[in-house]
Design brief:
Blueprint (H helix, E strand, L loop, with lengths): L25 H15 L4 E5 L6 H11 L6 E5 L5 H11 L9 H17 L5 E5 L6 H11 L2 E2 L2 E2 L2 E6 L4 H4 L5 H4 L4 E4 L5 H14 L5 H4 L2 H11 L3 H14 L14 E5 L2 E5 L4 H4 L5 E6 L2 E7 L4 E5 L6 E2 L10 E6 L2 E6 L6 E3 L2 E3 L1 E3 L5 E4 L2 E6 L9 H5 L1 H16 L11 H7 L5
Parallel strand pairs: 1-6, 1-7, 2-3, 3-6, 12-13
Antiparallel strand pairs: 4-5, 8-9, 10-11, 10-20, 12-14, 14-15, 15-18, 16-17, 16-19, 19-20
Helix pairs in contact: 1-2, 3-4, 3-5, 8-10, 10-11
Amino acid sequence: MDLDAAGLQEQPFRTHGKPLLFVHYSGQHAALDFLNSTYENQQGLGLFLGPTLSGKTTILREFVASLDTEIAVAIVDGAGLNTTSLLEAVLGQFGYRLDYNSVNELINMLKVFTMQQAASGRPPLLIIEHTHAMNPSALRVLCELASVKVRHASALRMVFSSDRSIQSIIQAPAMQCIASRMTGEFYLQPLARSETTDYLYAKLDAGGAAKPSRIMPGAVCDELHRASGGWPGIVDRLALLALAKAANCPVRKKHIEHPDITDETGAIQVQVPVPDAEVADEAPQLYLSLNGKTIKELTLDKPRTLVGRSEHNDLSVESRFISRHHAMFIRHGSATFLMDLNSTNGTYVNSRKISNHVMMHDDVVSIGNHSIKFLHRAATHGVQADEAGLADTIIMKNLADMRRMLAQENTDTLPLDMDKLLASGDSDG
């Protein structure tokens, strides 16, 4: 059912970017109270936990928006961050335009800034998302920053967000300065059944629905609550799918998917199925982001897509942490493969270093301090085993074409011997 048929002017259930409406509910109010008390505490350092798609990011950004505009805030995705990329990301959001500096210079610059702001009564706030996936070197920097004080109060307030417990990290001997500063831990709670109905109707109303209950009757809202567990991000995705599947109003229970929600290693993993007929013809999408802000979008509509620092790449990314030719996406049937081109700093998918990888819907690729979100709803359930088994064969077959593609570039800036490049890496990063 299209938006007009449902009486909507805008998509109410956005799954990317800023939500159409920030809907209040009890668990969220408790979370905002916790975040406020963490910032107001002179030693404030809090852990903010909740499963994937629980709404943590939306709440964190709403909290930041409520703060005095003179308070410096940095929200950083910690997945894969090392010392330098963490410091540059934080200083960049605090307003610094950076030339190349040593790590010590960056740390000292950040210490001086936090002390100056704290002395003026406006201690800065650092929020780290996906804290569990940070590199150990970056965690050590957090310890050093946590120890900076002004008049017996911590100069930098901190909130560590994660989809799993990070107590094993916090309690490590090397993290003692973090553990000693902890002022609280909060686990986000889902929507209650009645709150799910209010949540859905508020979003439908914001989208232009004259009578939300005509689109999603109460029984359908109850079913969405059962299917989602009350987690807002899953509610949005299931409601979006239900609207797409329904031919006309109202949406019915049969239109609601029931994803598998399993608990593995303390993290809640959610697979939300989608109807194959709706996604079979969709091409994968890439969203390049830096410090949480999307800066480029690209459709994978070619057999091969090169990513790297050189302007000759299909997705060119200006960063000294990224190699000239860093990685390559390869399309084969319904599958997409990612190959690292022996880059200097490596390629990571969902915080794990890879040499090649079969891409899945919602995978996050990390190169340098940039992230690439991979969206392809046809890959929600994964590719067939025989397709995955072809990964090495497919990649090797593409290397010959890669040589021809790269040979078109200026020989002064690119080694043309692909075998040598793959064996030795791009020496200047």
